[in-house]
């Protein structure tokens, strides 16, 4: 039996890290968008003489140290007494380390698929395990709970799914332009001195968004946050300014990755695509907003 889980990619527009010794109480405040592209996780389990867990990214086997979060999740969800082979294949629509919540998607997809197979965890229990190992290994703070809720989300209380509180912004039909341009280590940013500025600017953005919870206000606040923290700079800022000339709402930086995103109307798309070609950018995605919770179940071809 093959189990498949789909987890939406998640873009963080701005955030406020909330650290806690208890990983289930740690997390982040902020806002972001879930996309119709993301992470597909396939799980196959076969009985045997010894327990073995194997994980592959986009078809390539990965060692435990290179996928510590997903391996930790798999080892916790798989019953201790189970003996056999657990095969986990994770397929990502976006590159790893570019700010699309891939580590959270892999962790959450693994937890849900294994929980579904073994029937030993509820949806929330599985999601909490994914969140816990994300936090402990500094893969991220708020992606898992955001992906659980879907849509354009506002994290108004930090914590794991079932503990933190997430609200959603009502929106009309926007397309999301996502441009992955480079890697940025979440761990390095969380460990740096810039955290104080991020906390200040993130709190300010959250207050203003809750007073006027619209997609349009979200994009203005996201851009202010990205520039005021100094995270959006150099070539990334120049590309953002070029995109801004062609669309109504400002583009912004994905937190945390050297990547850009924007909300577009259908009629704005052709000119933006032409400008991206002129800039020599051919790797970008046009996505919808994913308004559901993650899917998990038996996979039939």
TrEMBL record:
Keyword Transferase: yes
Recorded catalytic activity of this chain's protein: (R)-pantoate + ATP = (R)-4-phosphopantoate + ADP + H(+)
Keywords: ATP-binding, Coenzyme A biosynthesis, Kinase, Nucleotide-binding, Transferase
GO MF term (any one): ATP binding
InterPro entries assigned to the protein according to its UniProt record, in alphabetical order: GHMP_kinase_N_dom (IPR006204), GHMP_kinase_PoK-type (IPR053616), PoK (IPR012043), Ribosomal_Su5_D2-typ_SF (IPR020568), Ribsml_uS5_D2-typ_fold_subgr (IPR014721)
Pathway, per record: Cofactor biosynthesis; coenzyme A biosynthesis
All residue ranges annotated as the GHMP kinase N-terminal domain in the record: 84-151
SUPFAM superfamilies named in the record: Ribosomal protein S5 domain 2-like (SSF54211)
Gene3D superfamilies: 3.30.230.10
GO term, biological process aspect, one: coenzyme A biosynthetic process
EC number from the UniProt entry: 2.7.1.169
PANTHER family the UniProt entry points to: PANTOATE KINASE (PTHR42282:SF1), PANTOATE KINASE-RELATED (PTHR42282)
Task performed by this protein: Phosphorylates (R)-pantoate to form (R)-4-phosphopantoate in the CoA biosynthesis pathway.
Family, per entry: Belongs to the GHMP kinase family. PoK subfamily.
Identification of the protein by name: Pantoate kinase
């Amino acid at each position: 039996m093959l189990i498949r889980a789909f987890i939406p990619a998640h873009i963080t527009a701005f955030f406020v890290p909330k650290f806690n010794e208890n990983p289930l109480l740690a997390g982040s405040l902020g806002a972001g968008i879930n996309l119709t592209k993301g992470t597909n996780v396939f799980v196959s389990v076969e009985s045997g003489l010894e327990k073995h867990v194997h994980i592959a990214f986009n078809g390539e086997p990965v060692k435990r140290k290179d996928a510590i979060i997903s391996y930790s999740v798999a080892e916790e969800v798989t019953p201790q007494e189970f003996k056999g082979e657990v095969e986990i294949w994770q397929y990502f629509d976006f590159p790893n380390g570019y700010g699309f919540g891939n580590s959270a998607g892999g962790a959450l997809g693994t937890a849900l698929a294994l929980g579904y197979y073994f029937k030993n965890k509820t949806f929330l229990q599985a999601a909490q395990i994914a969140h816990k190992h994300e936090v402990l290994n500094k893969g991220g703070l708020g992606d898992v709970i955001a992906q659980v809720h879907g849509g354009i989300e506002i994290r108004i209380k930090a914590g794991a799914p079932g503990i933190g509180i997430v609200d959603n912004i009502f929106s009309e039909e926007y397309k999301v332009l996502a441009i992955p341009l480079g890697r940025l280590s979440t761990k390095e940013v969380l460990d740096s001195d810039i955290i104080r500025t991020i906390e200040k600017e993130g709190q300010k953005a959250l207050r203003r968004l809750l007073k006027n919870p619209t997609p349009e206000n979200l994009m203005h606040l996201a851009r202010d946050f990205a520039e005021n923290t100094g995270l959006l700079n150099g070539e990334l800022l120049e590309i953002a300014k070029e995109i801004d000339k062609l669309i109504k709402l400002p583009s912004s930086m994905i937190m945390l990755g050297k990547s850009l995103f924007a909300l577009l109307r259908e009629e704005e798309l052709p000119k933006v695509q032409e400008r991206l070609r002129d800039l020599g950018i051919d790797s970008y995605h046009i996505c919808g907003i994913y308004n559901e919770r993650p899917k998990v179940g038996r996979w039939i071809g």
